[in-house]
Amino acid sequence: MVRKIENDHARFRDIVRGRIKQDLRKYISRGELIGRVGKNIVSIPLPQLELPRFRYGRVGTGGVGSGDGEAGTPLSGEPGESGGENAGDQPGEHLLEVDVSLAELARILGEELQLPRIKPRGRRLLESDVERYTGIRRTGPESLRHFKRTFREALKRQIMMGLYDPARPRIIPIREDRRYRSWNLKRVPESNAVLIYCMDVSGSMGDEQKEIVRIEAFWIDTWLRSQYKNIVTRYIVHDATAKEVDQHTFYHLRESGGTKISAAYELVDKIVSRDYSSDEWNVYPFHFSDGDNWGSDDTRRCVDLLRDQVFPRVNLFCYGQVKSPYGSGKFKKALDEHFAGNEMLVTSEIQSREGILDSIREFLRHGK
Questions:
Q1: Helices (H), 226-295
Q2: Cα Rg for the chain, rounded, in angstroms?
Q3: Are the CB atoms for 79 and 195 separated by under 8 Å?
Q4: What share of the chain is helix, strand, coil (3-state, %, to 5)?
Q5: Residue 140 phi/psi, 5° resolution?
Q6: What H or E segment, with its residue span, contains residue 317?
């Protein structure tokens, strides 16, 4: 019975997984999953699901479609009624809340977008202490008793004392025979990453543009957290000046004025060079803007900063240009022209929420 329940549960999980993959673009573009996250679990609303099963009837009896009757006759045999004053009798679509772990969502995202596993660059590894049960002790809790070692010690003792009878083998461990597993601390390499999100918060970036950035950042986080043990996230906002803020301010701040993108890149360079050694951290800056910049002189300053100071310290620099009715969209074109063929830069154009999935694929498909 337990095995049958486990098999049914596994089938149900596969059905849920298939439904999520089928509607992944819808779930990503709607963004409601972000508000359903808790303790690394996401609650996802799915249409009602039923496991397929056979239902047996009596041999020789009729079924639906057999016997007397007219087209349109209800199965109950009662005539149907219609009218504007009567309450509807048709069932609506029921939603089932299904809990899915962020790790499972990351696997679904990786499979659907065919994302490669991330390969940490160079020696960007830290070491951490991990407990491994590799030793044997004479004392310990009964939950850690090593059965085979205890049995072997008892057998050795009985043979040495002449108590072992091959014709009637009976091994009875005593207190001195018991052996217990013990742990040792082992230094293991551990990959660590820092995500630096930069966003233009000038007047041309409206609420819809910020929501697109928020949704995309959530899914980028979900994937990268499945690739690295530790993730640190930093947030930068900019208009004509740049400053570091917390997550809530990042997504809700609304300012006006001009846009000077070089201020954000200068702050990125300062944070990375001060806090995150290139030998120990995998660094991923993501910049989102509508493509407006103060002028060609500042764009050239941005190019110089990226080439000379930012690129040597990061794994990958990603620029996402969110379409805005007020933005010119010229900055992406300038980056593409200056860094054509440079693998350190990936750019994407996000026309609407429907373009989020394609932008994520463009950013993460390189496996860097």
A1: 247-252, 261-275
A2: 31
A3: no
A4: 40, 25, 40
A5: 160, 175
A6: strand 317-322
Work out whether the CA dihedral 108, 112, 36, 200 comes out positive or negative.
positive
pLDDT in tens, 207-258: 888 889 988 988 888 888 888 877 889 999 998 899 999 988 887 787 777 7
Exposed/middle/buried for residue 261 (C-beta within 10 Å: 0-12, 13-18, 19+)? buried
The residue type found at 199 is M
Residue-wise burial string across 198-233, b where 16 or more C-beta atoms lie within 10 A, e elsewhere: bbbbbbbbeeebbebbbbbbbbbbbbbbbbbeebeb
Rounded to whole angstroms, the Cα distance separating 146 from 127 reads 30
Provide the 3-class DSSP secondary structure of residue 157: helix
Mean of per-residue pLDDT scores for the chain: 79
Cβ contact 96:49 at 8 Å: yes
* Amino acid letter, 55: R
d(CA 344, CA 19): 36
State how far the Cα of 234 lies from the Cα of 250, in Å rounded to an integer.
Answer: 10
Task: Tell if the pTM clears 0.70, that is, is over it.
Answer: no
| C-alpha pair distances (Å), 20 with each of 14, 37, 47 | 10, 16, 11
Q: Distance between CA 138 and CA 119 in Å, rounded?
A: 43
Task: Provide the 8-state DSSP code for 35.
Answer: G
Task: Tell me 296's DSSP state.
Answer: H
Sign of CA dihedral 79, 80, 86, 91: positive
Alpha-carbon span 61 to 337, nearest angstrom: 75
Contact 356, 323 (CB under 8 A): no
According to DSSP, the residues that pair with 96 across neighbouring strands are: 46
Helices H / strands E in the chain, number of each: 10, 10
Q: Are 296 and 271 in contact (CB under 8 A)?
A: no
Contact 359, 218 (CB under 8 A): no
Three-state DSSP class for residue 310: helix
Asked if residue 194 lies in contact with residue 276, where contact means CB atoms within 8 angstroms, the answer is yes
pLDDT tens per residue, range 267-289: 999 999 999 988 888 899 999 99
Classify residue 119 by its DSSP letter: -
